[in-house]
Design brief:
The protein is an alpha/beta fold. It has a five-stranded mixed sheet with strand order 5-4-3-6-7. Strand 1 and strand 2 form a beta hairpin. Helix 3 packs parallel to helix 6.
Length: 227
């Protein structure tokens, strides 16, 4: 009995140490311990350094946000930041004729679509990096072939410069954790980017990895619970 009580005491001490360390970390970051445990970080640069901020932090007033955008999806409908207002969305980059990572990423994004199919506060935007070839008609055929649901998952095309500028400057999509990529090149990234209702980046995930996409789904639920 004494041995059992001693084990309980040790466990309680360890739990107390963990909680204390969490509180110290939270205080150092300027947020409460509950936010440090439950909320997601914010990202503002290509090195994806996490910033632990409370939702009402004054720092967020000038924090990195995804810029205004306007593209056309597979239904020939304009999709802009206004359509994403009040929504959580996942951003990705692809092209319809891609034989490599795109089919695998599409399969993973299909899981996200299925998980939130009835939730109008969650969307997916996949940007074509070959907009000249990926016309509305091509995107429509691709969507029909691959079970992409209109209104939930937008396959978008538009001006190449606008897509690449958004990718480079806003989603950091052509950066490989700081590796230099020339302006003429585009790194076909497997990253999926989670964006909250205020157009802040809240997570970056490997779109080829089951576990990472599982984390993405759970993080969407976390953001969803905050609405």
């Amino acid at each position: 009995m004494k041995k059992w009580l001693k084990q309980i005491s040790v466990i309680g001490t360890l739990a107390s140490i963990i909680l204390t360390n969490t509180q110290v970390f939270a205080e150092q970051q300027g947020v409460s311990s509950s936010l440090a445990v439950s909320a997601l970080p914010y990202y503002a640069s290509a090195d994806f350094t996490p910033h632990w901020l409370s939702p009402d932090s004054v720092e967020l007033a000038n924090f990195h946000r995804v810029s205004d955008f306007s593209f056309i999806d597979q239904d020939a409908k304009h999709v802009s930041q206004n359509d994403m207002q009040g929504k959580i969305y996942v951003a990705s980059f692809f092209f319809t004729s891609c034989p490599g990572i795109c089919p695998r990423m599409r399969s993973q994004l299909s899981k996200v679509q299925a998980q939130f199919i009835d939730d109008n506060k969650v969307s997916i935007i996949s940007h074509s990096i070959q907009p000249k070839n990926d016309t509305v008609q091509v995107l429509r055929e691709y969507a029909d072939k691959n079970g992409v649901v209109s209104g939930k998952w937008h396959l978008v095309t538009g001006e190449r410069d606008a897509i690449y500028r958004l990718a480079r400057n806003d989603y950091f999509a052509n950066e490989d954790l700081g590796e230099y990529v020339s302006k003429k090149d585009f790194l076909h990234t497997e990253n999926l980017v989670l964006v909250d209702v205020n157009r802040h980046i809240r997570g970056i995930y490997n779109g080829l990895n089951n576990t990472s996409v599982g984390h993405l789904i759970e993080d969407i639920k976390t953001l969803r619970s905050e609405l």
